Amino acid sequence: MLVAPWLWAVFTVIAAAAQTVRNATQRSLTATLGTVGATHVRFLFGFPFAALFLLLVIAAHGRVPPWPAASYWLWVFEGAVTQFAATALMLAAMGERSFVVTIAYTKTEPVQVALFGLVLLGDPVTLPMALAIGIATAGVVLMSVKPGAMAGGWKPTLLGLGSAALFGLSAIGFRGAILRVDDPSFVMTASFTLVVGLALQSALLTLYLYVRAPAVLLAIFRAWRPSLFAGFMGAFASQFWYLGFAIATAASVRTLALVEVLFAQAVSRFVFKQPTSPREALGIVLIVAGVVLLLWAY
Question: Is 233 among the domain residues?
């Protein structure tokens, strides 16, 4: 299947924009469902929309995807479980340090993804790509952290970097799974893997809440109306993340995904009328420079 070389970038930007909306929607549910409950909405209510899209893809192709080999399921399981673990470490880091500092640590993910992708999948990392990843990541950290904010000991640092590493492994796991579906259509392989991943994550987190917090599970179903939109946006964002993973390296996708920070900054500046500091302006310049270099190098 012939694919335009720039298509992965379009998919990634769409996914980053949709994820910004999803995050805002999930925040509104946190007050009533708690952090774990609001997170589960992403999987549980996203699954039906992902399944519907897969059915549309199957109808358009006139066939079902081939049943993948055993190694596929290992990659999917790795992606699903490390995503849970990454979220847990991120929340623990937020308990130790501020939200902004924690996000800065987690945004080192592209650097770690590049290393994991090279070792586990053989995804190439050229010198221009490595420079682009480093420049864009430095820009995000510069925007996120005020002078003196990183003080606080090694524990929050290790938790934040560990979270970034696990998020990186999750991206590698899902890309590894997508590459192991023997189908010529990248849309089919991405859509199938999204459905499998969401089904697994929904089942695991539902079981966890049933055992540990059944009241939260009941509250999720009571809040089904607002949860539907959050689930839809979650599935929509994930669909385009997976399409990007199907045709580009995880490091490229996760680096370009840093434009999400620019979206958030634009909302802050133009909607909430909050001024941009010189430090934030320099961070924006670095992110844009890194993204431009990445697109040129890919």
Answer: yes
